[in-house]
Write a sequence for this structure.
């Protein structure tokens, strides 16, 4: 983080600045311009990538990333589905099922489980919508 970057948010692990997200412990930095990158399947890249890191606390990253997305005026299409897929891959199916229930999602039925095993599906979790990214508000730029 350079001295000219305004701090917009920070939690125990992450700092959100006008330039991007930075991990306080190891200095890992995600540039603002690359924050909304997507994979070919429509999922956001960073939630899936960061939750593969053993040093990354998932909830602290999710909180900081969500603040950054709102602060930078980025559309959040598929963001929830991306985090669900990332948490599911990191935490395993039993913990993911508890998270579904706590989020108010209905438990998977047998038919849902069978369909979830089809190639290209993510075990009954929200699938990404391939929609264009649009800013949440007309003026998406932050005053810096």
């Amino acid at each position: 983080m350079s001295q000219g970057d305004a701090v917009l948010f920070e939690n125990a692990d992450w700092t959100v600045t006008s330039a991007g997200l930075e991990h306080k412990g190891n200095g890992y930095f995600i540039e603002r311009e690359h924050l909304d990158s997507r994979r070919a399947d429509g999922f956001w890249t960073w939630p899936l990538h960061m939750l593969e890191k053993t040093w990354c606390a998932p909830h602290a990253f999710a909180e900081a990333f969500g603040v950054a997305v709102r602060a930078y005026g980025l559309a959040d299409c598929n963001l929830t589905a991306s985090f669900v897929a990332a948490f599911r891959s990191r935490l395993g199916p039993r913990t993911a099922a508890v998270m579904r229930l706590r989020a108010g999602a209905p438990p998977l039925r047998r038919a849902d489980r069978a369909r979830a095993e089809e190639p290209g599906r993510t075990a009954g979790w929200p699938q990404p919508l391939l929609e264009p990214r649009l800013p949440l508000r007309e003026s998406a730029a932050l005053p810096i």
